[in-house]
Amino acid sequence: MQNLVVILGTNASGKSELGIRLANHLGGEVVSADSRQVYRGLDLGSGKITPAQAGTVKHHLIDVADLSEYFTLAQYQRAAYSAIDSISRAGKRPLLVGGTGLYISAIVEGYELVDVPPNDPLRAELEDLPLPQLVERLEKSAPDAARRIDKSNPRRIIRAIEIAAAGRAHTAAHQSSPRYHCLQLGLTWPLAILEERIERRLRERLANGMIEEVAGLRSRGVSDTRLDKLGLEYRYITRYLRGELATLDDLRRELAIAIRQFAKGQLTWFKRDRRIIWLDPFRDYFQEACDRIREWEETPAGFDHD
After folding, report:
1. pLDDT band at 152 (very low <50, low <70, confident <90, very high)
2. Which residues lie below 8 Å from residue 134, measured CB to CB, with a gap of 6+?
3. Residues 38, 177, 16: CA angle, nearest 5 degrees
4. Given 72, 77, 188, 204, which residue has the most CB atoms within 10 angstroms?
5. Helix 154-165 and helix 131-141: axis angle, to 10°?
6. DSSP 135-191
């Protein structure tokens, strides 16, 4: 298996900047692992790289889908495999960089996924059900999936029911065939510092036009339901534009809380994988990452981190 360096982390951790620095240093290109950056038009809210950053390193899997589409995990995995292999064939180094845990796991673990398209009528029916009824329906239609997936996550429950309705087995959680030998390097900060970074970045994005970005999407026909499903910035700014959050301060406060909670969830996901090597944010973590990569590559079979 070919080697693949993975740079992962929480929101506002600095992982994207680290990925760009490493790609420049190592002669590589970045494959994004972000479930919202795949969509065109989600720029400030999803934290896409700036045009200046895009000019220094080629990025893949950004702006590859329209908001009218539903970009599935299987589509992401297939496109990411293609990008990683293409970069390698060109004699460059691929780096998988992002914070969407499921996207990263799909590549690192090599999930064997079922590519079932969205069933819009079924989704419309399911989205009106309270969580207990969703769980009950999942247990009846897909008992194997019900034993594995997070029953507090309505989106995953709905997707599992949708897959079962198509007559397919829900295999993503228990079958895998890894294609790459991966070194996973993680970046985050102590909670108090991370919260400060989240607040600062949120204020910058609001000042740079994030509210106007969401208003523009609405004016171009993107529904409030679609924006709400995108979560975080798009959900809360849509509520603000509808008048459900009375002031800009209300928006900033509620959104900051939601982003902090999301970052904690990211960390919980990543901490389950003991192979991830967490860089020290208080030192030169770029140099530490370079040292870790060099050490890993000099070991014939790489190394696992327990």
Report:
1. confident
2. 126, 154, 157, 158, 161
3. 35
4. 188
5. 30
6. HHHHHHH-HHHHTTS-TT-HHHHHHHHHHHHTT----TTT-B---EEEEEEEE---H
The residue-averaged pLDDT of 64-74 equals 93
Distance CA 184, CA 66 (A): 30
When pLDDT is averaged across residues 159-174 and rounded to a whole number, the result is 71
- pLDDT at 249 exceeding the cut of 80: yes
The dihedral over CA atoms of 105, 109, 110, 113, expressed in degrees to the nearest 10, equals -60
Burial class (CB in 10 A: 0-12, 13-18, 19+), 220: exposed
Higher pLDDT, 194 or 113: 194
Q: Are 108 and 180 in contact (CB under 8 A)?
A: yes
Task: State the Cα–Cα distance between residues 180 and 83, nearest whole angstrom.
Answer: 13
